[in-house]
Amino acid sequence: MNFLVVDHVSHTYFTEKAAVTALENVSLEIEKGEFVSFLGPSGCGKTTLLSIIAALIQPTKGSVILEGEKVHSIHPSVGYMLQQDYLFPWKTIEENILLGLTIMGMNSNEAKQRALDLLSRIGLKGVETYYPNQLSGGMRQRAALVRTLATDPKILLLDEPFSALDYQTKLKLEELVWKTLKEYKKTALLVTHDIGEAIAMSDRIFLFSAKPGRLVRTFIVPKELRNLSPFHSRNHTTFSELFQFIWKELDSLEANE
To answer: What is the pTM of this model?
Structure first.
């Protein structure tokens, strides 16, 4: 059985004056433990699809099935990490990373300790009493990752979580997130505009066309790249070959808009 199934999903946004179809008849399947990326031109519905998987919005047509059960509402099995960290500035880092546990009534001493241990393991030991404005952007995103993982979700939805960072911090955080999710055997879905990022982090890449968003092609990242960390993957000869191929496909889609 597939871990996550998107079954013929379409979505239209309605206003008083117009109806705009963001997604049209999208179907895909994701296996447990996979890291996949949604890639495509602006306006192809990548974030809309992520929001539908998270049950933040309901699709106009179709359904999302997680472990054999249709997703109707926001579910603790799904974690969501956004471009901005959205840490509460008036709360300490410890209070921020434990917030999800508190909201879900999962704040046992054992769960709290696991979250604090993870904070230490990703290089943030000693910042528990700090406030977000005392940390760099990369450190805040690491804290946001801990907050997301603290509730032990089965799948992580990553909506361009590195795009607001400088390039060096972005590469370091890609490496950290990839290693952390592999270690904890999490399934992850990344929305990105960055072809290199998609190749470096993913097992498969779903390429979308725009207006409306349709799934037009699936790329399987070669095994020799999947076995490498994102940083080392970028230095492999196969990386450049795949990058150029996807670039041409994406350029062709944008030219046909």
So the answer is: 0.90
Q: What is the pLDDT of residues 103-135, one digit of tens each?
A: 877 778 888 888 898 888 888 889 999 999 999
Which residue's entry shows tokens 């290089």? 123
The residue range of the domain holding 147 is 76-191
Residue 149 identity: L
Closest CA to 171 of 125, 134, 138, 140: 138
| Residue carrying structure tokens 């990752």 | 145
CA 143 to CA 183: how far, in whole Å?
17
Sheet holding 187-192, edge to edge: 78-81, 155-159, 187-192, 35-39, 204-209, 214-220
**Is residue 247 situated within a structural domain?**
no
Angle at 162 between CA 159 and CA 166, to 5 degrees: 155
Query: Is 240 contained in some domain?
Result: no
> Does residue 130 sit in the same domain as residue 107?
yes
| Residue 180: count of CB within 10 angstroms of its CB | 19
Supply the DSSP symbol for 213: B
- Does residue 156 belong to any structural domain of this protein? yes
d(CA 50, CA 191): 8
Bridge partners (DSSP) of residue 14 are: 19
For 83-102, the pLDDT digits (tens) are: 788 899 999 999 999 988 88
Q: How many domains does the chain have?
A: 2
> From the CB of residue 153, how many other CB atoms can be counted at a distance below 10 Å?
20
Instruction: With CA atoms as reference, report the closest residue to 151 among 189, 114, 188, 125.
Output: 114
Number of residues written out for the chain: 257
DSSP structure class, residue 45:
S
Whole-angstrom distance, CA of residue 39 vs CA of residue 185: 23
Integer Cα distance of 66 and 54 in angstroms: 10
The backbone torsions φ and ψ at residue 167, rounded to the nearest 5 degrees and listed phi first, read: -60, -45
